[in-house]
């Protein structure tokens, strides 16, 4: 009985140090590639959200212009108080809300930070 248990213990197999180091090296390469890629995706989505918010603000200003409520130098809070926006959107990335002004030049309304 005792000899049988010794034989079973000797048959245990495991990973060598070289195999474990190879796995760690492969994982490190994967992480080195994936982390910057994920960072770029987050940055691009933040930029796209910012562009979409500015387009929303400009479209609300165009609506105010059609309704003859638009004045040059209006800001986003003026659009909110006039009812053209529900709320002042937050800038992606957590740096507050939009505080720029709206202007009209050659019939085109633009938002300026």
UniProtKB/TrEMBL annotation:
A GO BP entry is: establishment of competence for transformation
User: Which Pfam families does the record match to this protein?
Assistant: N_methyl
Q: Any idea where this protein resides?
A: Cell surface
Q: Which domain of life is it from?
A: Bacteria
Q: Identify the stretch(es) annotated as Disordered.
A: 91-113
Q: Which UniProt keywords apply?
A: Competence
Q: GO cellular component terms?
A: cell surface
Q: Which NCBIfam families match?
A: IV_pilin_GFxxxE
- What name appears for this protein in its UniProt entry? Prepilin-type N-terminal cleavage/methylation domain-containing protein
Q: Lineage of this protein's species?
A: Bacteria, Bacillati, Bacillota, Bacilli, Bacillales
